[in-house]
Amino acid sequence: MLRPSASDRGGLHHGIAAATAAAAVAVGVLAAPPLAAQSAEVVALVGGTVIDGTGAAPLVDGVVVVDGDRIVCAGSRDACAVPDDAEVVDVSGRYVTPGLVDAHVHFSQTGWLDGRPDGLTAEEYPYDETAEALEAEPERWAQSYLCSGITAVFDVGGHPWTTRLPARFEDDPTAVHVRAAGPLITHARVPALQVDDEVYTFLPMGSADEARESARRVAEMGAGAVKVWYLGVGPERAPAMDAALAAVGEEARAAGLDLIVHATGLREAKAALRAGAFLLVHSVEDQFVDDEFLEMLVAGETIYAPTLTVGANWSRAISSVVLDRAAGIDDPNGCVDADTREKVAATTMLRDDMNSRLLDDAEYVYRRMRAAGRSEAIMAENLRRVHEAGGVIATATDAGNPMTLHGPSIYAELEAMQAAGLTPSEVITLSTLNGARAMRREADFGTLAGGKIADLLVLGQDPTQDVRAFRTVEHVMRAGELHSMAELAAAAGRR
Question: CA torsion, points 46, 43, 10, 113, in degrees to nearest 10?
Fold first, then answer.
């Protein structure tokens, strides 16, 4: 038995409390053991295999005691006494893990092409209208994340309003923890993502002075980090742009903020490390990393977020429109909202709005897919090299980009890391503890331990044998409130 999800706090509570088993069947969620909802301050999950997120061996027939929104104890029956007044939840045959953390998402992107006007021309979805809708209802993505077993996310770049999400969602047990970097700083020109003074994604970095001013603006708006979008530049511009990047790093540190950097080229990634980057939000994908890179990464304790699957997802999105064949949505628990599903399916309506080059040159699709395959191979090898060198890695999807859908995209990312050669137990730690480290929240969540916020999952299968088990999530606890997949999926599917 468990205490019910509250229905009177607004936000995502609307709809979740009203979800029924019949609605769960309608969205095709996985079967879960019936758990009666009752009010209780203390809840004990008893009999499951406890996987604490630290990499320690799983504890069979374990106990997790939760009081309010905090874990009191997670361990063996002998170590964790069940209070007399606790509501006992029998999770025998199940697996209890920390909630997943996605260390790279974008609340101000949709998961489809309408959220990236810099990627193609799509007049069918005017970007000012898309941006307005995104700001009006960020709960939509929070709901998809929670439904997919994700209890915390790092928004590493977006519109100014995203910096308000951490405070908005932190105390809501039906939302997710958020760290947000706000607008990105870049030397590139991206007019499609500069709608007006209130809706923009990028700030300029044309010189060191301009970079410093942009970094100060980000800090003043209450961002939790400072992000630089650092693309490849020619040899003539490289010294000046490296200096601008270093200037952002200096301003960030002066404001008490971390520098995080998008740098997919090895040269640019090294420049980011020299500038003091705390987090590299993508893999190096143009070539294999070398000893110099690995030494700097490890010495600086920089976190490496691979995002192995986002490039292939971009290719799938564009290909689906060029070929007029909707891309499949990988969403085993029905967590993607109805509006997103409809847009992904409506490929025909975008064909007339796409850049004509894409339609006139069918070979473009195949060239892009071949390039994505090459990048995937390089990224997988670089992940192995970073791991073997002792680098800190955090699971990250780049959710919000086309076909990297908010929430369930994490499953393919976990599986790609496992396929690259990491063990399931290693992937679990990268997706829980290390994600919390990327958010600077490891003292609060990321592992199952006394004093931590009670964010956890109940799975039907063993993730230490295969990370595909995260697809079998049956219940999600956020801040001590346990939600069934039926409730979460029914609410997510209605939006």
Answer: -20
Its domain, for residue 258, covers 100-312+364-438
DSSP string, 342-354: HHHH--HHHHTTS
- Residue showing tokens 């995002």: 307
> Does residue 389 share a domain with residue 258?
yes
Q: Is the pLDDT of residue 17 over 60?
A: no
pLDDT tens sequence across 346-399: 887 776 655 544 555 556 666 666 777 789 999 999 999 999 999 999 999 999
Q: Which two tokens stand for residue 117?
A: 């006007």
Q: How far apart are CA 428 and CA 350, in angstroms?
A: 39
Q: How far is CA 124 from CA 54, 118, 141, 191, 351, in A?
A: 47, 14, 22, 18, 10
Whether residues 156 and 17 share a domain: the answer is no
* Residue 331 in domain: no
Which of 105-119, 282-296, 408-422 is the least confident region? 105-119
Predicted TM-score of the model (pTM): 0.90
Count of structural domains within the chain: 2
Question: 461 and 434 in one domain?
Answer: no
